[in-house]
Amino acid sequence: MPKLSADRYFSPDPAQRSLARDLYAQVADLPLICPHGHVDPRLFADPDYKFGSPTELLIIPDHYIFRMLYSQGISLESLGVPKVSGEPSETDHRKIWQTFADHFYLFRGTPTGCWLNHEFQTVFQLENKLTSDNAQQIYDQIDGQLQSEEFQPRRLHERFNIEVLCTTDMATDTLEHHQTIRDSGWSSPILPTFRPDDVVLIDQPGWLQKIERLGELTGESIISYASYLKAIENRREFFRSMGAKATDHAAVNAYTGKLSDSAADAIFQRALQGKMNDDDAQIFRGHMLIELARMSTEDGLVMQLHVGSDRNHNGNVFDVFGLDKGCDIPLATEFTRSIRPLLNEFGSDPRLSLILFTLDESTYARELAPLVGHYPSLKLGPPWWFHDSLHGMRRYFDQVMETAGIYNTAGFNDDTRAYPSIPARHDVWRRASADWVASLLVRGMIDDQDAQAMMRALAYDLAKQAYNLD
Amino acid sequence: MPKLSADRYFSPDPAQRSLARDLYAQVADLPLICPHGHVDPRLFADPDYKFGSPTELLIIPDHYIFRMLYSQGISLESLGVPKVSGEPSETDHRKIWQTFADHFYLFRGTPTGCWLNHEFQTVFQLENKLTSDNAQQIYDQIDGQLQSEEFQPRRLHERFNIEVLCTTDMATDTLEHHQTIRDSGWSSPILPTFRPDDVVLIDQPGWLQKIERLGELTGESIISYASYLKAIENRREFFRSMGAKATDHAAVNAYTGKLSDSAADAIFQRALQGKMNDDDAQIFRGHMLIELARMSTEDGLVMQLHVGSDRNHNGNVFDVFGLDKGCDIPLATEFTRSIRPLLNEFGSDPRLSLILFTLDESTYARELAPLVGHYPSLKLGPPWWFHDSLHGMRRYFDQVMETAGIYNTAGFNDDTRAYPSIPARHDVWRRASADWVASLLVRGMIDDQDAQAMMRALAYDLAKQAYNLD
Amino acid sequence: MPKLSADRYFSPDPAQRSLARDLYAQVADLPLICPHGHVDPRLFADPDYKFGSPTELLIIPDHYIFRMLYSQGISLESLGVPKVSGEPSETDHRKIWQTFADHFYLFRGTPTGCWLNHEFQTVFQLENKLTSDNAQQIYDQIDGQLQSEEFQPRRLHERFNIEVLCTTDMATDTLEHHQTIRDSGWSSPILPTFRPDDVVLIDQPGWLQKIERLGELTGESIISYASYLKAIENRREFFRSMGAKATDHAAVNAYTGKLSDSAADAIFQRALQGKMNDDDAQIFRGHMLIELARMSTEDGLVMQLHVGSDRNHNGNVFDVFGLDKGCDIPLATEFTRSIRPLLNEFGSDPRLSLILFTLDESTYARELAPLVGHYPSLKLGPPWWFHDSLHGMRRYFDQVMETAGIYNTAGFNDDTRAYPSIPARHDVWRRASADWVASLLVRGMIDDQDAQAMMRALAYDLAKQAYNLD
After folding, report:
1. Helices (H) and strands (E) in chain A, counts
2. Could you give the CA distance from residue B165 to residue B35 in angstroms, rounded to a whole number?
3. Labelling B442: which of A117, A137, B392, C188 has CA 20 to 30 A away?
4. Which residues have C-beta within 8 Å of that of residue A90, sequence separation ≥ 6?
5. What is the pLDDT along chain A (470 residues), one digit of tens a residue?
């Protein structure tokens, strides 16, 4: 890993690089807007919260890291990833760290490599590259820092200059940590996001218990589709009262289609009784996406839709280690016809704001840019997950912006549960943006004034506006 | 928008830029070949034709422009887009122009932005960038020019150095304006193109009237598939007599499949009686594409096929404002198997020339380049519609040319109804071509002689040859 | 075609070019690893083997070349391509060569053009570019060399510095040429690869005869699925004894799915009796891919899977000229769900090594990089066929490496039957690799040490390791 260069990620062409450097300098000190991510709000609820060991912070919970190690034959067990059975995985954090260091070369040229390099140098002030030889010494260095007050999440939050951070929370989440944060008087906004997949995806294990819980939390007796909708609306209102600005929805595809209330109720009843037909889950989800859009027109929550991941592809890993273990694989995705029913209902409604995310880059130029470049309700989210990388961003700028224009995109979000990687991820985006804007400027496609306005929009304004964070 | 730079759109690398500049200089003064587009022939029928107001010329008819404004919540009504009902839309052209100027920033980094910039500076000689403040003053400037003789279409045609321009005309079009142009003795060729979608797509509203009209025009009593074919052949002959070099066909997908005459007639009869089965329209279209290819082998008209647009995606906009209102959205497209029946019939026939267009760039390297790099009848058309842009062209060169070679492509066409944007569009293509050829030259993949030949072919020869315009 | 430049294929940017040049210099003299290709082992069996005429060596057998000529209306017959009927094609090799020279411009900017240029200058020491005028003179030059001892395959092998070359051989191949090579005591390894498509694809013409032949060769009476498996296992053992390191499998799509033994046997019986159901071939192939993976876990042969070519697209060419005549066209391909059954069975088995190849680049970032970046058994093969080109490699590096990391890829293979093009093809890969690694280095994403390690891995180590050629 290289010493961080002031010109990292910029084109080597001197003319473009110089423009990119100047553009970047204009936004380098702007606060970070984090409107979508998976940081645990507990970090901020306890003012004295401490991260665990380096391994606990950086490796065990980060599927970007352990998926790469797993791909080279290192078992998740030996990396300390906990089993759903409760049976023990490796507990020697120094040993895990050593394995990580021994295989650090695997991350050459990857975004994870870039983020780690940035974290090591700017968050932990490491001077040397991690190697097999210095692994334990670096472990000590990081470990020592993690014990210090300076590395408490609230302190890092200030150091990272994060203006606002949104978490992702299930419909049945009580938001107790958010409440504690508010009660503590800490001023930096940590806002919940309403993600009701737990109660909308009727084929997910445990759905019925979630419905029961939803009933308890809302005081609704959820015996019908009508009471179910009411309970969801109630819960949205609660989230809004706790500062939520947005909802989030995962779907394996972008199918939408409106049902009659009675048809929706029929499926809902079958789900309650555990007697679903084959397509019920998809049909119900496609209907609910339209209902959830309708609710957004009424309560103003920005709607996010993340489409196209085949979750838990590796059945063995899922059985032993559970969800989110690096074995979700993207699927080819169709938007044009799938999302048309929703858009014909609410796509031109000025009250709806719907941000789309894809894992299928072939839809950027073909479907998504044309869609967001027409429908007033739509915005395109930043490159997501596997595409949240320097080259992924280049492809996004290249394939989206000419048709959509930047003002139909939603800026950047880091989508991460790896808290100390947040500055690194925004750093890549801001530099990639600067380099792209510079590439237009140096080719005479825009002028200086345009370039400066675009730079600021990409780095800061678009995300803030898209999520109503003003 | 920047002052037009002499090196616009070229790589910033000094070596590549210098080569690109030299290559471009070789073709900069070649006349424009416009073998496919949607300019209204009326412009040239009346030698004294005047364009209306700036708003009438540049905004109201241009869906590239108003779709972007619509995407940001500006109603089509307020932009003066006429309603099918005849109810009034905004008629204050200065007010519409002001709205456009207020939102001109939306076009930053888009091809529309580049074209407008080029038009404003080279066609209208504007010295300042359009802003909210100078909007009315610029309106006056353009308006004044549009009233002058210099800005009559025939005069602009000469100024634009357009060697030949092909229009797009329905099978039932009488070509009266083309006749008037011929009668007037004006020497610059304005040629019709035979686009029989109106009589081939049997599920389109109004198809039966079009068939009746086709009968009247051809003197055929169209009561059977056989007489229908005869009428189409008759009409092709008429178009040829009026100078047509090509046909054009739109299809939602690339499906082709041969029917027996009796099967074709059965569908045709159902269509006449308005009693079609679900798949009749697609099956008939797939059959007719093969029949139309057969006709091309007989009468020599070059065949164009434009595939993969989901028309009128926004039902509300379609209902109120009708066709071509910026809400057509591309679809994933399959060519390999779909078009095989046609190619197995006529793909190796030396008399057929079939030019393919796609909105699905994932087919460039995967299907289209391999197809046109094998079948003698096939050529690939330039990047189409949403992909007619600097970066779209780069992706096209990148993904098509290694497999297809440039000589299996059809050069450029502007495909526009926005007449004053024609030079701007060709300018982007010629510069993008120069930069791409320079990128090969500077990497030692071709030599100087190759580069010069390729440059001229891309800028001029290929389009002329592909459409038999010699 | 240009004089070969020392900096060919590198970025023109001076900083990146200089780094690329240095990186390339480190690997330029490393021997070539050729783990997958279609060179005829006969070339090496006879120590006195001579290539025929220039036309026989370079044109008649090379579908990359004659497909391009065919696409411009030149008949395969006139190019000397033999007919399956035995009827004569053009036999005047000088005339064919002249046609080739007259159309040499078609290869401008194509990989074939680059390879030919490299061959002409480095293998045949030509000083002038091939033209219509010098065609016969150059024919004489090449022809003279081909008659000399220096141009015998074994001599070229040493000159090309090929460390190991793997051929591709049917399950029913006797490997007699491989045996002759071994017996001759020639030391350079020419290894067979087990490609059992001939006995696995039950819908291929001649399958039954192949099964009979398989029975003869293995001494198995193949009357059941069980005896069929045994015969295949027997044959794998024979190939292993002859030095095979890998198997290879072609499939029109990536479908896999496990059958019960009785279900597999039922299909097998129907195949023996020529009474297959519509989907039998696909279902059986999908099952056999899992069985073949199972065999690889047992005998250690690396498994290769090449997916997504619609073979013999042009029925007329196939009927007259047979297989591999440049009319195979890629298909959109789905991996995520298709290959999941195989991966859930063996994807995490440390004994399996499965190398995937695609013709659908949209799967690089979407499916393949995420898959190979997770499953320990998987590696991604290099850009294949139409994508084996400078720009194809760039897209591969761009779209694969950030998610997969280079260590989950299999380095390069040339996949060619055109023996004298081998150095040219590796030259493109090594230079493309150097330029890509340099692009990361100059952007501060990796450091010098990383760059050097990655360069060597891409040029040499990865291929050797992926195929167990150590």
Report:
1. 22, 11
2. 6
3. B392
4. A77, A78, A79, A80, A96
5. 678 999 999 999 999 999 999 999 999 999 999 999 999 999 999 999 999 999 999 999 999 999 999 999 999 999 999 999 999 999 999 999 999 999 999 999 999 999 999 999 999 999 999 999 999 999 999 999 999 999 999 999 999 999 999 999 999 999 999 999 999 999 999 999 999 999 999 999 999 999 999 999 999 999 999 999 999 999 999 999 999 999 999 999 999 999 999 999 999 999 999 999 999 999 999 999 999 999 999 999 999 999 999 999 999 999 999 999 999 999 999 999 999 999 999 999 999 999 999 999 999 999 999 999 999 999 999 999 999 999 999 999 999 999 999 999 999 999 999 999 999 999 999 999 999 999 999 999 999 999 999 999 999 999 999 999 98
Q: How far apart are CA B39 and CA B419, in angstroms?
A: 6
Q: Which two tokens stand for residue C200?
A: 């696995």
Return d(Cα C416, Cα A70) in angstroms, integer: 33
Alpha-carbon distance of B5 to A410, in angstroms, equals 31
Under 8 Å CB-to-CB from A82, ≥6 apart: which residues?
Answer: A60, A89, A321
Distance from CA of A74 to the nearest CA of C (A): 8
Query: CA-to-CA distance for A256 and A287, rounded, in angstroms?
Result: 6
CA distance A151 to A159: 10
Element housing A98 (H / E)? helix A93-102
- What count of Cα atoms within 13 Å lies in the side-chain half-sphere of residue C175? 27
- B392 contact partners, CB below 8 Å, separation of at least 6: A365, A402, B111, B361, B383, B386
CB-based contact B226:B288 (threshold 8 Å): no
List all chains that touch chain A, counting a touch as 3 or more CB pairs closer than 8 Å: B, C
| Yes or no, beta carbons of B374 and C111 under 8 Å apart | no
ipTM of this complex > 0.85?
yes
Name the residue of chain A whose CA is nearest to C394's CA: A391
**How close A327 gets to chain C, by Cα (Å)?**
6
Half-sphere exposure of B364 (CA within 13 A, CB side): 27
d(CA B316, CA B322): 9
Q: Would you call C316 helix, strand, or coil by DSSP? A: helix
H-type helices in A302-444, by residue range? 315-321, 340-346, 362-363, 369-372, 390-404, 422-442
Chain B positions touching A373 (Cβ under 8 A) are 67-68, 71
CA atoms of C397 and C289, how far apart (whole Å): 28
Q: Which amino acid is at B359?
A: L
Buried b / exposed e along B368-386 (16+ C-beta atoms within 10 A):
bbbbbbbbbbbbbbbbbbb
Give bridge partners of residue A165 from the DSSP assignment. A34, A190
Contacts of C109 in chain B (CB under 8 A): 401-402, 405-406, 440, 445-446, 450, 454
- The answer to whether the Cβ–Cβ distance between A1 and C399 falls below 8 Å is no
Domains of chain B, CATH where assigned: 14-49+151-466 (3.20.20.140), 50-150 (1.10.2020.10)
C166 strand-pairing partners: C191
Of C105, C109, C313, the CB nearest to B336: C313
Partners of B360 on chain A (C-beta within 8 Å) are 362, 366
Among C139, C155, C149, C233, which residue's Cα sits nearest to residue C194?
C233
**Which candidate from C10, C108, C361 shows the least CB-CB separation from B443?**
C10
Of A373, A399, A446, the CB nearest to B68: A373
Which residue on chain C is closest to A364 by alpha carbon? C362
In sequence order, what are the residues at sequence separation of 6 or more whose Cβ sits closer than 8 angstroms to the Cβ of residue B11? Answer: A13, A443, B17, B20, B435, B438, B439, C12
Say how many CB pairs under 8 Å bridge A and C.
148
